[in-house]
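fyi for ur records
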Amino acid sequence: MICKWICESDRVPDPKPRWNPKPEQIRILESIFNSGIVNPPREEIQRIRTRLQEYGQIGDANVFYWFQNRKSRAKHKLRVLKKNPKMLGCNPSKTRKEKSLVLVIILLILVLVWLTMKPVYFRVKTMSW
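which gave:
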């Protein structure tokens, strides 16, 4: 009887799965943050959560902690840039698609330059009989 009581009281409930925001939710949160709302009050958090729930399950705490973490990342980035102003020129936030697009454009420019500068012997000669 005692063992049964001790074993049952030691049970820990399964942890909730970690919130994984959808791309739409991140876009909305980023746009709100970039508009100047970096520390929304409770009522605003509830309105934001209601808006984000259209795209997936989310709680008030998720919104609150997202803004806290985002503000922390922004401050950290600012501190890093102040220590090393040379980093202002680099943009590590470019996506793989953006980088690929730049490479394709460069390749097209090189092909166009090559086509306009190709030697005469590459041209097809027509024979006159």
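The mean pLDDT is 82. thats all i got for now
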